[in-house]
Write a structure and sequence with these properties.
The complex is a heterodimer. Chain A is an alpha+beta fold. Chain A is built from 29 helices and 23 strands. A six-stranded mixed beta barrel of chain A has the order 4-5-10-7-9-8. Chain A has a six-stranded mixed β-barrel with strand order 15-16-21-18-20-19. The radius of gyration of chain A is 38 Å and the shape is globular. The mean pLDDT of chain A is 81. By secondary structure, chain B is α+β, with helices and mostly antiparallel strands. In chain B, 54% of the residues lie in helices and 14% in strands. Chain B has a two-stranded antiparallel ribbon. In chain B, helix 1 packs across helix 2. The model of chain B has no long low-confidence stretch (mean pLDDT 86). The chains are: A alpha+beta, B alpha+beta. Chains A and B meet through helix 2 of A and helix 3 and strand 2 of B.
């Protein structure tokens, strides 16, 4: 007869595993009885399933065996004791404690600062509650060379979009412009945002005074930020005060906004209704002039794609059937504004990785140093074990020491961060705040300290408590014990990171100085710039005459060689574009940059004219019919020389009169783009800069003279100036900032790596004490012993070099590809960095080794 | 009153143990409850109730013989204790008393 089918074994095991042993046999009996019935009536499979189901139904508190938890009555007392002993141990070895705490604290500080910086950058514009649903409408020009995004849009756009597409919940547009603000007796410069009142409903800029629903109830109301209020009115109440913009428009302050957070892509000092601008009516149906940013609020993020799909029809409706082939409308999520307008979030993730790396290296050092230190305490461990300490108690002991150290480090790190942060902000132009009042941040940091302490302490704790009493009392370890491979790997990692960071800092610096000192093909020395701006003169009628008077006055000075006015200057090249084509060209017009300059422009800036001539002053022909190209534009047109060349700009034609050398009007990050120079436009409003070339070292006297002339003009705008070379340097702010950050962290990394090395050498020497003693007895010199110990580390650092150099070379090579004009990565330089690392490492370990080598061998050998 | 409070299922289990007299153990109680009340209960619920009732002293148990049909495991046979009987009776009397106190008019027009 076949034996009866048995219930599923695993289910039974499971039941026995959790069930109270007093109850298990009868339950099993009952289940078995039922199982027999199920097998008979329902089949084996179903029976097994039901058996499992019933076993699981017993898995509840009543049946689960209560495990006995025994707590030693002295337990809580002991924890206090552990910390007490930990404290005594730490204060007995002050230098060790100092190195360990400061290493971790520096690591924590570095990581905290990076984290704050990264958090600030990654939360750009996120403080608006509706941020996920706000989109910026922008256009893409479709050209044969790909699409070019531009972000300026037309005044009638938002109203039309809103009436056309009901899914759009709200729209707003705005443009920010530099204005002159006059109070009763004072004048200020300010960034004014001309906008719809909706902008304050869509974006959440918290209001201190006034109310979103009421401001802008009439067209002569303005809202200012707290900072601006302070600047304008001091401590007086700003509400109800009158301000005048650009000598013409009067507003009453009706609301005050909290200061605009630094991580907002919209930045301004005051807001006025866009409808109050004089040419609003005229522009409200103008689809030709684009100058403002348009925002739409959608019900959810996913509707953006559907809306984008409808835009081609819209474009055809407004501009005609052919336009959708040339232009796209797109929606840019506000949350992507950071990557589009401000920076590159890739750099931030790289920084975060560096922060994690630094913390990792710092914790590893901590472990190394603690392990090295605890080896000296083998005898203590042996004694404690002899007196009956259990292994768990020793583990507690070591972990509480580590936790104490880590908490101290975290606290010091927090304090260091708060001390350093203002300098960091000043250095890098950021406005980071340490959110210490946020209890969650504190809890996070303290639990980080606890966790780190636990993990860093656990290795020595579990490793050392494992030894038998005899072993530990003899204070002797078998040579291969203690994860030598792991520790060596960590040293290699530390030095690889350090070499990488130092090499990067040097390469970034090389590229930066290459760009700053490169021949820009124009002269940037001895040039003073004076910005003009549209609002500088009250009326436009005499603008031209007044500007000429100013220029003539300057030229009369013996030390001023040349004076020019122009719409742009190299280093400040706003995106003016126009469509042009060579006369007779069949294809699509090309999109090209253009600028207005006077006759003295090329001469003043020292730009070489390679063929043809500069503009003729007072030539009526040049005024309407002449153009000067740069070499890049010649290439774009496919022209070899300037003979009889004419460009076609739709309504008018221009004769090519000259060819200018490719001068770098933008950062060397970009290749020189084609530009068209036109001779001064009929209306002088387009000239934004006066440029003067001087030939004196007496800058003070020169500036006094310029200021006096400026005051005599009585423009109502304060005298402002800058030197061209400073202006050029300002183009490289991003690179400069990167250099600063990488340099700072290379310092941190090398410091931490050296601390690691110190720990490791301490550890190694500790283990080789007897060997060193014997060698000394047999006649080895201090130098020989130093060499012997140093050899191992040298090999490790050479290995790091072997890893770091190719990796660093590759990464920097990739980074340099972003620059149109760049240096090559210098492998010798990287090798040089390696030698410096080696030197520092030698310095670090020599100290330890010499101490060990000079010790009296009697001390290390006598207990054998 | 509070100390002797019986849950409905617990009362059902005790009554069933009484009915089955000498053959009251997990499976038989479960089957009988299903038969009498028509409601399905899981074995673990029965076991939990039996153990709780024994802890309170309303039931006692002894180990029965092991049989082949139970895979060689013993039965635990339950009996109602004198105290348990008293609790059951109290519960019954309380119900009866309350039934008696319902005025006849309450049953009209239902």
């Amino acid at each position: 007869m076949q034996p009866p089918k048995q219930p599923p074994r695993h289910a039974q095991q499971f039941l026995r595993g959790f069930c109270d042993p007093d109850l298990v046999s009868e339950i099993e009996g009952d289940l078995y009885e039922m199982y027999r019935g199920w097998v008979l009536h329902k089949g084996c499979r179903k029976a097994d399933f039901l058996y499992w189901l019933h076993v699981l139904s017993f898995f509840r508190p009543y049946f689960i065996a209560k495990r006995k938890v025994t707590l030693h009555p002295n337990h809580s007392l002991m924890i206090k004791n552990y910390f007490f002993i930990a404290y005594r141990n730490l204060s007995k070895h002050k230098s060790f404690t100092l190195i360990n705490i400061s290493g971790l604290a520096i690591g924590v500080t570095a990581a905290l600062i990076i984290a704050l910086y990264a958090f600030n950058e990654l939360t750009y514009d996120r403080f608006h509650p509706l941020a996920d649903r706000i989109f910026m409408v922008y256009k893409e020009r479709i050209t044969p060379n790909g699409v070019q995004p531009t972000y300026d849009t037309w005044l009638p756009l938002t109203a039309r979009l809103e009436s056309e597409y009901p899914e759009i919940e709200m729209t707003a547009h705005s443009f920010v412009d530099n204005v002159r603000v006059s109070l009763d007796d004072k004048q200020f410069e300010a960034e004014a945002m001309f906008a719809d009142p909706e902008i304050l409903k869509m974006f959440n800029f918290p209001q201190v005074e006034g109310n979103v629903d009421h401001v802008f109830s009439s067209l002569n109301e303005a809202v200012i930020t707290e900072e601006t209020a302070q600047k304008f009115f001091g401590d007086e109440d700003p509400l109800g005060k009158t301000i005048t913009l650009d000598f013409a428009l009067q507003y009453t302050v009706s609301g005050v906004l909290a200061d605009i957070p630094q991580n907002s892509s919209l930045q301004f000092d005051l807001v006025v209704p866009i409808k109050s601008t004089p040419d609003y009516q005229e522009l409200s149906e103008n689809w030709g002039s684009s100058f403002l940013s348009s925002y739409v609020l959608l019900p959810d993020a996913s509707s953006a794609e559907r809306l984008e799909a409808k835009f081609p029809d819209f474009i055809a409706q407004v501009w005609g059937e052919d336009e959708p082939q040339k232009t796209n409308f797109k929606l840019l999520p506000l949350t992507d504004a950071y990557d589009t307008f401000v920076g590159d979030s890739h750099n931030i993730y790289v920084l975060l990785v560096i922060a994690i790396g630094i913390i990792l290296i710092a914790s590893v050092n901590f472990m190394n140093l603690s392990t090295a230190r605890s080896l000296e305490r083998m005898r203590e461990i042996g004694m404690r074990k002899t007196f009956g300490a259990r292994r768990s108690q020793l583990i507690y002991q070591f972990i509480s020491e580590a936790v104490l150290l880590c908490l101290a480090s975290v606290l010091i790190g927090i304090m260091l961060t708060m001390i350093i942060l203002p300098y960091f902000n000043q250095q890098f132009g950021t406005a980071l705040v340490f959110p210490l009042s946020d209890i969650r941040v504190l809890i996070l940091l303290i639990s980080f300290g606890l966790l780190l302490g636990f993990f860093s302490g656990s290795y020595p704790a579990f490793f050392l408590s494992r030894f038998k009493i005899i072993q530990s009392l003899r204070g002797k370890l078998r040579s291969k014990q203690g994860g030598i491979g792991l520790r060596n790997a960590l040293v290699v990692l530390q030095f690889t990171v350090s070499i990488f960071l130092i090499g990067s800092a040097l390469t970034v610096w090389q590229q930066l100085s290459f760009m700053q000192n490169a021949d820009m093909a124009f002269d940037k020395e001895n040039i003073i710039l004076m910005p003009l701006g549209l609002g500088s003169f009250e009326g436009s009628a005499q603008d031209s005459a007044r500007l000429e008077v100013f220029k003539t006055q300057l030229l009369a000075h013996p030390d001023i060689v040349s004076v020019s006015s122009s719409s742009h200057i190299p280093s400040d090249w706003a995106g003016w574009f126009t469509f042009v084509q060579p006369k007779g060209w069949e294809g699509d017009p090309m999109r090209m940059r253009y600028t207005f300059a006077d006759a003295a422009y090329f001469q003043t800036l020292g730009i070489e004219i390679q063929e043809g001539r500069m503009f003729h002053e007072d030539s009526q022909n040049d005024r309407n019919e002449a153009v000067i190209l740069n070499e890049a534009a010649m290439q774009a047109f496919g022209w070899e020389n300037i003979e009889n060349k004419v460009i076609d700009m739709g309504r008018s034609e221009y004769q090519l009169v000259g060819l200018a050398e490719d001068y770098h009007f933008e950062s060397l990050r970009n290749e020189v783009a084609p530009i068209l120079h036109f001779y001064r436009a009929p209306d002088n409003g387009v000239h934004n800069y006066v440029t003067a070339r001087i030939q004196t070292k007496d800058y003070r006297g020169m500036l006094n003279f310029l200021e006096a002339q400026w005051e005599a003009l009585n423009t109502g705008r304060p005298f402002d100036f800058s030197f061209m070379d400073e202006q050029v340097a300002r183009m490289y702010e991003a690179e400069d900032r990167l250099l600063g950050i990488v340099t700072a962290f290379s310092g941190v990394a090398i410091a931490i790596a050296c601390m690691g090395l110190l720990g490791l050498s301490q550890y190694t020497l500790q283990k080789r004490r007897k060997e060193i003693g014997i060698r000394k007895v047999l006649g080895a010199s201090v130098g020989k012993i130093l060499l012997m110990v140093g050899r191992d580390f040298t090999l490790l650092i050479l290995l790091s070099l072997l890893i770091a150099v190719p990796f660093t070379y590759w990464l920097l090579h990739e980074w340099l590809q972003d620059f149109a004009y760049r240096i090559e990565v210098n492998v010798l330089l990287l090798a040089g960095v390696g030698s410096v690392a080696l030197f520092i490492a030698w310095l670090t370990i020599s100290f330890q080794s010499i101490k060990a080598a000079q010790a009296n061998p009697v001390d290390s050998l006598r207990d054998e | 009153m509070k100390g002797t409070n019986l849950g409905e299922l617990q009362e059902l289990v005790m009554l069933t143990v009484g009915m089955l007299y000498d053959d009251a153990y997990g499976v038989s109680i479960k089957d009988e409850i299903e038969k009498q009340s028509g409601r399905r209960v899981t074995l673990s619920t029965i076991h939990a109730a039996l153990n709780r009732l024994e802890d309170k002293g309303y039931l006692n148990s002894r180990m029965g013989g092991a049989s082949e049909e139970r895979g060689g495991r013993p039965k635990r046979l339950f009996r109602v204790t004198a105290y348990g009987k008293q609790v059951l009776e109290e519960s019954r009397q309380m119900r009866n008393r309350m039934w008696d106190l319902i005025p006849r008019i309450a049953w009209r027009n239902i």
